[in-house]
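Batch job 17 of 40 flagged for manual review because the log was empty.
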Amino acid sequence: MVPPRRLLFTLGCCLLLAATPTLAGRPAWKWLAEPSDITLPFEPEELSDVLSSASGPNRRAVEQTLDESYRLPNSTSPVHYHLSLRTAIHQNNRQFSGTVLIQIEVHEPTTTVTLLNRALTVQRAFLHEVATGGVAGPQLEQVAHATDTRTEHLTLTMSQLLPAGSQYYLRIEFEGTLQNNNNMGFFASSYLDNSQTRRYLASSKFEPTHARSAFPCYDEPLLKATFELELTHSKDYSAVANMPAAGAPVPDPDNADYVTSRFEKSPKMSTYLLAFAVSDFSIRTADRQTVYARPNVFDETAFPLEAGNRILDALSDYMDISYYDYMPKMTQIAIPDRGTGAMENWGLVAYGEPVLLFNPAINSYRNKKSVTTIIAHEYAHQWFGNLVSPHWWEYIWLNEGFATLYEYYAAQLAYPEGNYWDLFTVEVIQNAFSADASETIRPMNWNAASPSEIAALFDTVAYDKSGSVLNMFRTALGDDVWRYGLKTYMSARQLDGATAEHLYSGLQEALAANAPSLLPAGVTVRQLMDTWTSEPGFPVLNVYRTYGDDKQEAILSQERFLSNKKLPNTHVYLVPYDFTTGSQPNFNPTPEGYAWLSSKAQKISINAPNDQWVIFNRQQNGYYRVNYDAHNWDLLIEALHANPTQIHHRNRAQLVNDAYNLARADQLDISVPLRLMEYLRKETEYAPWTAAGSALTFFNNKLRGTDHYDHFLVYANRILLDIYPTLAVDSVAADETLLHQYLKQFITTWACRIGHGDCLTKMKQALTAAHQASAPVHPDIATAVYCNGLASGSDEEFVWVYEQFKNSRSQAQRTVLIDALACSRNPAQLSALLTVALGTGSDFDAMLASERTRIVSAVYGASREGVDAVIDFLMVSPAQVTEFVQRLGQSALNSAVSNIASRTNNQQELDRLNALLNSLGSMVPESVATSARSTVQNNFNWFTSLEGLVAVEYFQKVATTPQEL
């Protein structure tokens, strides 16, 4: 037995001196990192007449001032590129060189041609004639060139006037440097092979404005052209690109160790969709699809290849436009150390390894779901973004909104047994509400000029909100009309750019041909959708029933929903609404069942007896919240408590989510969602439970560490009381559905979180049994078993799980194991784990930078013991903090301080925070320290707010009132 004073040192050494480890981030922006069932996310306290207004010139709530100097002039445009690049990435040489030959068309007489260039060294530039057959002819002159580093404009100046209507070739020779593991432009990545040798590769990711960092080009989405590509690289490596290879690689005449890979001419496409990679990867092929991945994860490429074929075929059938009519092949490539993003390059989709590779022996159902839906997202882009691209980034939702919608819809088409569509409500619509309830959020149509402004458009609005709004209109217009409209739109704009107006025109034509009377008289698709796309936010539909003796009526009204205030707003959304009643329940939405609220308020007939509930927004297809009068809320709560299944499970999820968020916004008494959620005791579907997760997390975080916490635990235990015994939380059955697995993990996590004795015992026993047998836990329950088992795990068990992390090649599995290790409540184990995050030398060469920061956030996110461990770690010495910042970055330290403050609920914890802030001194900005103290004060103030007082009183009453079992 290790003496207590020696435990920290011994465990730390055990971890640090273990055998050398092997290497194993919805967007390319957020993915799709699954919501953690281990850490507790904290919600921020503060979120920093129709037809005439919709057609006016100033439709936006906020006027924009744009610096148009970033845009290219209209005097010329590209017709064709021939791009040659040379790389020695196999030697980890980050320099590359290239020549680009651009066929241009002149639209206005000019002596200058302006392209875009980011950090490339242009050596020489030449002007050539266009010879017979369209090829480059004789050189006319060597031209002067200069780059403006602010606008990134590369200006080529000719000695002669280029007349309008003429065509020329520009030949530009240049050099550049591969970017370093940042998933931008032409960048380098690496991995460890089975002999622990580091291998290097280079690949591209150009969206939105990074093509210019690989070659001088017209780097705007509308300026499409065809491409021919050749890559010169090591003869031991292979190259892959959008198009198939044009023959076998050709030996390089200048160096026998190199070959040149050439590729067929592409369709007309935007520069941001050009893609290529040079690597020593292995290839798996089926039909016209292939998957590229490093050789030591080749076994993990079988499922993505199968899913790719099924999803692409399903989308081709749905769109009634075959992918293979435009592209001859599809390749997927898994890039190491690329996070969890993905990029839809036409014919060569690139992914971070965790969202493409899948190994059923080590990866869970959640990984498989992410792989499936992200492939569907990127494949949907083959139509929305690739076949038809946005005219300008202002309309990026024409790409990302559709891809988000079909991410779930196409997965459902390809794998109907997965019921992926059920996840759209809770993962997309309800997620979009959170960001879109801010007063400062942008609308879907929002312009941008500079590269940083353009990059900022790839946000929740572009993805989740836009996907939700598009799905609302898909449902309201009917899927048949919708598909007719999409085909009309894509056929009209194929191989070109599009604006929102082009989409509206296609849908208008579909309505005229199939359902001319579906919309209100005189209302166009443009007028309808513009009320949603050109204004920020979303409405709450208020339903106030009159409960008359002879008439069953309701007054409907709308106002913009904001999470923390009410503000006067004259905007009117054209809201498609439908409803059903307790007397005649029918939850199947149809286009004919929708009516339209086109004013601030109106009275309607609802045909519902006074003693029967009414529910609006069937299956939550509409992108709006719904609030009811007090009596209808009571009727809904009574119905849920009596028999939840009489209400559709998506609407049950809607009621939970709406009630909680309306209460948080002071539009409903907080006791309403608390009373409503007590029905969950009878709930067996995943969607309502996960909708309740944010509410349970909020109260858990507010009350933990206070005298009121035990009352909340009684409340949570009671709603879990009936469902928990029905679930085999420590085993996996072959016939479990995807949604049942989601449900089981949610319930297990919460049961153990609130200290349910049976849950904690079973998780600890399962971990101990696995450790003794030296057999990893089944991946579908590994998260729950490892996390909850390690909460009281022995040093030997902790090190055993750490060894699995250290030896895993799967980035997805490594993330799961980091989160599990952080669940320990043992200070010495946590200190050792935090030390691992700062480790240097060959033993830690396999760790990704993202894994190091994940260790820290997982530790303070898992428990109060984790928070204390991070505080203790940062107070060891100023030298350790300096090392922390050098290794992980200042932002990691700032984030740690902010999150510690968020988890500070009592005076003792505040004393610890103050001691930390005093110890850190100037090593954290004063603004971070001030904000941390303000956060704690807000935590304390909540208990004297109306919401806090009512909630505390409610939980106390529940805990002290006997209930029937």
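Reviewer: the log was empty due to a logging misconfiguration, but the result itself is present. The first strand starts at residue 76 and ends at 87. Unflagging and moving on to job 18.
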